[in-house]
């Protein structure tokens, strides 16, 4: 991979990682509802889970989509259903001040890593990254693409958690927090538009 191609890969990883999508919207909501520290496992799950996903897509999963086109439909239906469920959870998140037994919990590391496999934006990013930046599918280029995303992704997604945490001061009113959570849920559902109408 040439220096210019590597710079283009870093730019692609940054732009696709920092722009709004299901991961970033959920991190913003988690930062607002649970704070930065409690959201760290969620962030790490995204960064490491997505890196692993890119590597596995490059190592052969991309061929599965070519061989069995029905897998696109299965993935789309599963992704939509899961994102709708997550939107419902965000919309009904309990205020941070409420009883811990009643309050929601932030997404765990494993939940966030597993979520990448039903995240439509993550699939689009992974498939595009491998097709464009590792067309030869050699182990070296696949690992380089995956590790580049891993290094760029974590600081990018952390920005959304910090933004949510900063909003927390404004969300001390239960009414404002409820409005924020419903807005985040609506935006998460809206992020499905490219999946439903490509």
Task: Give a short synopsis of this structure.
This protein is mainly alpha-helical and 198 residues long. It is built from nine helices and no strands. The protein has one domain.
How do the helices and strands line up, and which of them pair or pack?
Elements: H1 3-18, H2 22-34, H3 36-67, H4 70-91, H5 109-115, H6 120-133, H7 139-167, H8 174-190, H9 193-196
Helix pairs in contact: 1-7, 2-3, 2-7, 2-8, 3-5, 3-6, 3-7, 4-8
Low-confidence stretches: 98-102
Number of helices: 9
Number of strands: 0
Give the helix level as a range of percent. Answer: over 70%
What's the order of the H and E elements?
HHHHHHHHH
Averaging pLDDT over every residue, what do you get? 83
Structural class: mainly alpha
Distance between the termini: 31 Å
Rough outline: globular
Strand fraction: under 5%
Q: Compute the gyration radius: what is it? A: 17 Å
Number of domains: 1
Largest beta-sheet characterization: none
Care to describe what's here?
The chain is mainly α. It has one domain. It is 78% helix and 0% strand. The chain is built from 9 helices and no strands. The longest helix has 32 residues. The protein is globular. The two termini are 31 Å apart.
């Amino acid at each position: 991979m040439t220096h210019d191609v590597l710079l283009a890969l870093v730019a692609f990883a940054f732009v696709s990682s920092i722009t709004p999508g299901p991961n970033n919207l959920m991190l913003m909501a988690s930062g607002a509802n649970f704070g930065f520290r409690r959201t760290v496992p969620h962030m790490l799950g995204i960064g490491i889970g997505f890196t692993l996903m890119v590597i596995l897509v490059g190592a052969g999963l991309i061929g599965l989509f070519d061989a069995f086109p029905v897998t696109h439909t299965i993935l789309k239906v599963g992704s939509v259903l899961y994102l709708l469920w997550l939107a419902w959870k965000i919309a009904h998140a309990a205020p941070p001040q409420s009883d811990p037994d009643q309050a929601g919990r932030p997404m765990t590391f494993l939940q966030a890593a597993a979520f990448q496999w039903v995240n439509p934006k993550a699939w689009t990013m992974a498939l595009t990254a491998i097709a464009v930046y590792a067309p030869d599918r050699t182990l070296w280029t696949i690992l380089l693409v995956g590790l580049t995303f891993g290094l760029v992704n974590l600081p990018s997604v952390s920005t959304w958690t910090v933004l949510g945490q900063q909003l927390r001061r404004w969300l001390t009113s239960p009414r404002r927090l409820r409005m924020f959570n419903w807005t985040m849920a609506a935006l998460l559902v809206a992020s499905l538009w490219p999946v439903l109408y490509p």
